[in-house]
Structure formats: C-alpha cells, structure tokens
Amino acid sequence: MKILVCVAQTPDTTAKIEFINNSTQFNATGVTFIMNPTDEWYALVRAVELRKQHGGTVTTITVGGTDNEQTIRKALAIGADDAVRIDMQPTDAYNVAAQIAAYAKQQNYDLILTGKETIDYNGSTVGGILAELLDLPYIALASKLEMPSPNSAEVWRDIEGGVEKVGVQTPFVVSAQKGMAEQVIPNMQGIMASRRKPLAVLPPFDVETLTMAESFQLPPQRSNVKLIDPENPAELVRLLHEEAKVI
Prior knowledge:
247 residues; two-stranded antiparallel ribbon
C-alpha cells in the first residue's frame, strides 16, 4: 500500500495567543510548536499500523517553511518512511489542500489520511477540499478504519444517535478523529532512524489562494461564575431576570 498522511504544525495548546501588525498576524515569538495532535495521534499512527499489516510505504506531507522540519522528523520517528515539505507558508485551507493535491496527483496513493482538524484554525476543511480536487471518495470524522485487503476498507464514523459504517474501495481520503488509533511515543531507535530517512523539499505549486485573513480577534474573557445555594432557587430566578445576558 502507498499511504500519504497530511501533517500540520500548530502552536502548543498552552501557548499564549497574541496578534501583531494590527491584529493581522499571529505572534510566534516564544511559542512552542507541535505536530497537530489529530494528524499525529490518529492519522499517522493508523497509517503506520496499516503499513505493518499490508506492507508498502507511509509518506507525510507538510506545507510550511524550514521551521516545520523538527515536527516532520518526529513524524518520521513515529514510523513514516519518508516525508515531503512544500516550501511555503500556508495561507488558507484551499491553498494548502491544492498544494497537497498537486503533489498527490503525481504519486497515485492508495490512501490519504488527515486529522479531523488543526487545533489552531479548527476548520475541518482540508480533507474535503483535497478529496474534491483529486476526485476521490471522502469519509470525514472517522473513528475506526479497517482494511481487510489493500484494496478495500471499512470505515466507522460517529453520527447523531449512532455509528455509521461505510465500505469503500481504494483510493480514498479520510479524516481521522479520536478512536482511530492510540498515541505513540517515539522510542530512541525511531528517533535515530528518523535522521536518515529522506525529506524532500519541493517548491510550491502554482495554485490559487481564495481567501485571506483581514484580522484576528481574541474571544472575550470569561466572566466570573456565581454559585447559587441549591436551597435558594429564588436567588437563581432573580439573577436570571436581572443579570443574565441572552446572547
């Protein structure tokens, strides 16, 4: 099997979020960056498991600058065979997906995996756009992926009130969420091996950028919580009438 995993770099969840240049740019000064958790824990780990089951290769692809290479090496340490970095700063979801699609069209992958979303923008759109550009079936928010053979798959996804099971033939694109796999911590052997694995750096493809961020705004700070004695429902009623804000 030939598997491609889309890997993004995101700020650590504990990073302090600030914007500069009239709130048009994220301030990366002093920020620790990590591999996007849903790409790492679910998409990449499941891809490595499927390669062990059926043979083949796992390649990761990242759209980003040289500052992404430590994150990419971690993906190689977890078990990817090689990696591709498209040398440009991501602009919007369409541009990222189009860059990946332009590369993937040349490679004939059997399976393309993404995390369900990145933890910075939470858009959940790259996988769907990528599948459309490649004219492939797309299964979103998958919590389980089984492949009885290298040519067919059974995919489970949570839906309102139950679980949906989908059958699909390769090639296809799937976005992975919790349940797809369990987090793997790279061991020393994997870390040492990652230094010798190939990382190809490609110039960006000539694709469109359809949107741009005009400005960013932090959400309002949370207000203080008022605790009401359960024996005093009248006070709760008063607060709801007099102080509660309806949004």
